[in-house]
Specification:
Helices cover about 45% and strands about 15% of the residues. It has about 270 residues and is of the alpha/beta class. It has one domain: Divalent-metal-dependent TIM barrel enzymes (TIM Barrel, Alpha-Beta Barrel), CATH 3.20.20. The strands form 2 sheets. It has an 8-stranded parallel β-barrel, surrounded by 4 helices. Strands 8-9 form a two-stranded antiparallel sheet. α6 links the parallel β5 and β6. α4 crosses α5 and α10 crosses α11. The longest helix is centred in the middle third of the chain and has 20 residues. It starts with a strand and ends with a helix. It comes from Lysinibacillus pinottii. This is Sugar phosphate isomerase/epimerase. InterPro entries: IolE/XylAMocC-like, Xyl_isomerase-like_sf, Xyl_isomerase-like_TIM-brl.
C-alpha cells in the first residue's frame, strides 16, 4: 500500500511545501497528493517538482483539480494542457476531476452526452501524454452513485478514463463500498479515505462548507472512529488489489490526526496479514 497526504488538508494552515514534505516523510507516507491550485501557485518556482520531492523519498500520487467541463472547449483544453504539464513536472500520470455540477438524476440525456463527449476529448489528449483522467465518486456530480458511474465509464469507453474511489462518498450513496469496489475494481487507480461520525452529519463535506475557513467541522473524525468500518474495507481491498490512497482530512489538528490515521491503517494491515 502507498499512502499520501493531501495538500488540500493544509489549505487553512501556514505551512510551506517543504514543511509538508518533511512531515510526510517523518510519518512514513510514500507520497503527496497535490491540489491543483497549489501546483499552479508553485509553477514559477522551478526548484519544486518530481526531483525535489524524490529527495524526500516521496512521489506525487495525483494532481487533484476541477477541470472546467462546462467552459468553452478551447478554454477547457487550455486548462487541461496546463494541468497536464504540471502533472508531468511533478512526476504523476494521474489528474483528478469532478464530472458536472449536479447529480446524475438531475442531468438530462443531452447534458450527459455532452459531458461524455468532453471526457473523450480530455482522455484523448491525456493519452498522448501518457496520463490518466480520474473521475471522483462524489455527490452532486455524474458519479454520485454506482450505476451512473458504471454507465459513464461504459459510455465514454476510453482506456485513459479511470476512477478516484472516495470510500465515504460511495457509502453516502447508499451502497456498501466493498460491493462498489468489486464492480469498479478494473477502473480504480486511487482511493480517498475519510470518515464521519454519523450519516446525519454528511453535509459537513458539502463544498460550500468544507472549503470555507469558517465552515463547520462537526462530525469529522479520525479514520477508525467513524461509521465506516475501515478495518473491514482494508481487509477486503488489500487482499484483492494494489492500494494507492490519500488520507483526506478536512478538520482541525491536521498533523496529529494524519499521524494517528497512518499508524492505525498500518496496524490494520498488519492484522490482515497475520
Amino acid at each position: 500500500m502507498k499512502l499520501s497526504i493531501c495538500t488540500i488538508s493544509f489549505r487553512h494552515y501556514l505551512h510551506s511545501i517543504d514543511q509538508l514534505a518533511d512531515f510526510a516523510k517523518a510519518q512514513g507516507f510514500q507520497g503527496i497528493e497535490l491540489w491543483g491550485v497549489h501546483a499552479k501557485n508553485l509553477a514559477d518556482d522551478l526548484h519544486y517538482g518530481a526531483d525535489w520531492l524524490r529527495s524526500f523519498g516521496l512521489e506525487t500520487s495525483m494532481l487533484s483539480d476541477y477541470l472546467p467541463l462546462d467552459a468553452p472547449i478551447s478554454e477547457m483544453m487550455a486548462e487541461t494542457e496546463r494541468l497536464s504539464a504540471l502533472a508531468e513536472r511533478w512526476g504523476t500520470n494521474k489528474i483528478r476531476t469532478f464530472v458536472g455540477k449536479k447529480g446524475s438524476s438531475d442531468t438530462s440525456k443531452k447534458e450527459r452526452e455532452e459531458l461524455t463527449f468532453r471526457l473523450e476529448l480530455l482522455c484523448d489528449y491525456l493519452e498522448s501524454k501518457g496520463q490518466y483522467l480520474l473521475v471522483e465518486t462524489h455527490p452532486n456530480t455524474l458519479t454520485d452513485n454506482l450505476p451512473s458511474t458504471m454507465q459513464l465509464l461504459e459510455e465514454t469507453n476510453h482506456p485513459r478514463l479511470r476512477v478516484n474511489f472516495d470510500v465515504l462518498h460511495v457509502w453516502e450513496s447508499g451502497i456498501n463500498p466493498i460491493i462498489a469496489m468489486e464492480q469498479l475494481r478494473p477502473y480504480i487507480l486511487h482511493f480517498h479515505f475519510k470518515n464521519i461520525a454519523s450519516r446525519t452529519q454528511l453535509d459537513v463535506f458539502a463544498p460550500h462548507n468544507v472549503y470555507a475557513a469558517s465552515g463547520s467541522r462537526e462530525g469529522m473524525v479520525p479514520l477508525f472512529e467513524g461509521v465506516i468500518d475501515y478495518g473491514e474495507f482494508l481487509a477486503e481491498v488489500d487482499s484483492t488489489m494494489e492500494i494507492n490512497a490519500s488520507l483526506e482530512w478536512f478538520g482541525s489538528n491536521v498533523k496529529s490526526v494524519l499521524t494517528k490515521d497512518i499508524h492505525d491503517v498500518k496496524k490494520a494491515l498488519q492484522l490482515v496479514q497475520i
